Amino acid sequence: MLNGLPLIDLHRHLDGSVRLSTIIDIAKQHKIKLPAWTESSLRPYVQIMEKQPGVMAFIEKFKYMIAIMVDEESCYRIAYEAVEDLKKESIDYAELRFSPWFMADANKIDAGVIVKAVVAGTKDASKALNIPVGLIGIISRTYGPELAWKELEALETCKEDIIALDLAGDEYNFPGEWYVPHFKCARSNGWQVTVHAGEASGPESIWQAIDELGASRIGHGVSAFQDPKLIEYMRDHQIGVESNLTSNVQTSTVADYALHPLKRFLEENIQATINTDDPGISAITLLDEYKFAVNQVGLSHQQVEQAQRNAIQQAFLSESKKIQLNDTKT
Question: Does 64 have pLDDT greater than 60?
Fold first, then answer.
């Protein structure tokens, strides 16, 4: 189905990419209670079996992934394996995002330890497997703006290893306006900005992410077509959209694949891309998402290529590295 263009995932949560086998293994090592002890019996507790009523219900599925993030060693392993899984999927470049506070909270460990472990695990695997990976830090808005400063501080302990900052979590109850100063600091660090917006809230959330937080990419953005002026602005200013088909269906953000706005984004020349979001929870690969894009959303092969080219353009890479990435496939 795919052509010779690079296969790229720009929206993939590290903390939503944990293997079932790893959950079981680390739980046994640390005597963590699980509801089941085989992959098949644990699957319904970790992966989506039926549509959820919203984003926050989807996030509940992280429970056992987070539970086994007990120390630096376990977080290093999770990061390393996430890159191994990129390699297994024949992905040429990926940007993994993670919220250190979200990962640290269940076991009350230092968020700085999480950052150090994730950076080390990702770097080591990237080098060993010869696959370039960028790391995006997340501020989890659900903890509120005060704890967000601590999360930002933890990410800044490895400032040179982070390429961008994201805002994720409960978009509806924790508006982006609360995090303007945090993202001002992020931009002063030289980080790029991508923001979850227009998933649980309307186009005003996307406008705020662009105008006040400085987002050059929007995660999900499914409500954008409610405002034609926003669509025009995003096209004219090359604001990227990180589309996540399966998770949007599973969270009931869209009713089904056929109603997903990805095809409309591409028809309007919005730089939309195809991504996995949380493959460990959605039980998908990136190639699965491309198949759904063709067979369910109705993308043509030309539009598939358009989405792949958009991913090269929207990647948080230097122009020289984008050219190098593209050249490796031609």
Answer: yes
Integer Cα distance of 43 and 179 in angstroms: 35
pLDDT in tens, 198-236: 999 999 999 999 999 999 999 999 999 999 999 999 999
Cβ neighbours of 256 (radius 10 Å)? 12
Contacts of 258 (CB under 8 A, 6+ apart): 296, 297, 298
Residue 3 within a domain? no
Tell me whether residue 87 is in a domain: yes
Number of domains forming the structure of the chain: 1
Range of the domain at 315: 23-327
Residue pair 206/197 in contact by the 8 Å Cβ criterion: yes
Q: What single-letter DSSP state applies at residue 199?
A: S
CATH number of the domain bearing residue 78: 3.20.20.140
* CA–CA distance, 198 with 202 (Å, rounded to integer): 5
Q: Which residues are catalytic?
A: 199
Residue 9 lies in a domain: no
Question: Is residue 10 in some structural domain?
Answer: no
